[in-house]
Amino acid sequence: MDDAWAGSIDTIKKAKIACNFAMPSGETGKLSVPGSPLYVIEHADDGQITFPGGLPIVDKEGMLIGPIGVSGDTVENDHLAAQAGVNVAGVCDVPKHPWRS
Amino acid sequence: MDDAWAGSIDTIKKAKIACNFAMPSGETGKLSVPGSPLYVIEHADDGQITFPGGLPIVDKEGMLIGPIGVSGDTVENDHLAAQAGVNVAGVCDVPKHPWRS
Amino acid sequence: MDDAWAGSIDTIKKAKIACNFAMPSGETGKLSVPGSPLYVIEHADDGQITFPGGLPIVDKEGMLIGPIGVSGDTVENDHLAAQAGVNVAGVCDVPKHPWRS
Amino acid sequence: MDDAWAGSIDTIKKAKIACNFAMPSGETGKLSVPGSPLYVIEHADDGQITFPGGLPIVDKEGMLIGPIGVSGDTVENDHLAAQAGVNVAGVCDVPKHPWRS
After folding, report:
1. Which residues does chain C have within 8 Å of residue D40's beta carbon, measured at their own beta carbons?
2. Listed residue (B17, B4, B82) closest to B46, CA to CA
3. Using 50, 70 and 90 to split pLDDT, how confident is the model at C1?
């Protein structure tokens, strides 16, 4: 994206955590603040980014087929752009699972 | 574990910190929030994970023989699964020590 | 700078984040505390420093031409020294942008 | 130290930050919590540890000649042991400086 922040090249790895845990990166971020269950999860997997803009893509069979990550604007706008991308290919939510909470 | 999060491959290194400090990973996590004695310990040893699911295994002689780490469900369930594993081989608590606090 | 902290060699990479996001490093730091939009951005780009002392340099055409970073004193003084450097070559603020928030 | 935590091998790098900034590691830690001037300084210099147990050693001429780091017990005891080591060789405080705050 022209005129995006140079730093966005790497923060786009928010897509990685969206795929790793099948949830929007911003949701993981809410769970990673001090006192929350996933505090410091950013230290795993060579550094993860947990602010909004990364989303999982789930196809019609309920399979997680990959993530999308957008970076370069406010995190709210990044999230909206990522959501638009997901809508083309599927949804964000994995189906209910017999044992996964 | 089928259908576990892909990201769990690396968060399972919570076992490392359980062995490193002979205490459940979640206990270390309580000590690593801002203002607590071990704040930022996650930056040591190439990145440590301090949420529940990692447990030390101590044998009948009171020797720390290794850790167990479980990841892929909620941290509460990960902890329970790890505890079940420990129960097969020993306990989690190291014996009292003459000088270690 | 004679008698500066040895550790300043690396904290000077606060210049990197000033260039990456075209804002003073201290501003990024305010956005990276728990609960703020860029929480944990320090984990991106091989480790970023978000306290004051790093500033972007914007030329007369409004182009971000690079950053300046100062480290070795208090963060307030580091910031002042960096600002003096910027004043020689340009300003810190990028111009308004049609879509960037 | 026999029966010290295995994880102490790496947390002893608290000595590094004591030397880097010529102050006790625990003092740096107080400055690195969210909202404080050196928030996230742990991300510099390949990971720094900022809890107590690292101390600078300053000789009779006021020169910082190196650090000492102790790890393996509570952070309070680690600090006391490090202080005992410093007392053999010098003091912890660098002299007043014409421009360094």
Report:
1. 29, 32, 42, 49-51
2. B17
3. low
Residue B62 tokens read as 């009171």
Closest Cα in chain D to B95: D3
pLDDT tens figures, A50-87: 999 999 999 999 999 999 999 988 999 999 999 999 99
Length of chain D: 101
Q: Respond yes or no on whether ipTM tops 0.90.
A: no
Q: B70 to chain D nearest CA, in Å?
A: 20
**pTM of the entire predicted model:** 0.88
Cβ atoms of B83 and B26 within 8 Å: the answer is no
Q: Using a CB–CB cutoff of 8 Å, tell me whether A32 touches chain C.
A: yes
pLDDT at D85 over 80: yes
Closest by alpha carbon to A28, among C20, B25, B48, C40?
C40
Quote the pLDDT of residue D100. Answer: 58
Residues D75, B35: C-beta atoms closer than 8 Å? no
Q: Which chains touch A (3 or more CB pairs under 8 A)?
A: B, C
Q: A45 CB near a chain C CB, below 8 Å?
A: no
| A51/C39 Cβ within 8 A | yes
Q: Does D49 touch chain B (CB under 8 A)?
A: yes
3-state secondary structure chain D: CCCCCCCHHHHCCHHHHHHHHCCCHHHHHHHCCCCCCCCCHHHCCCCCCCCCCEEEEECCCCCEEEEEECCCCCHHHHHHHHHHHHHHHCECCCCCCCCCC
DSSP string, C35-77: TSTTTTGGGSTT----SSSEEEEE-TTS-EEEEEE--SS-HHH
Interface touch C49/D40, C-beta < 8 Å: yes
Count how many residues are written for chain B.
101
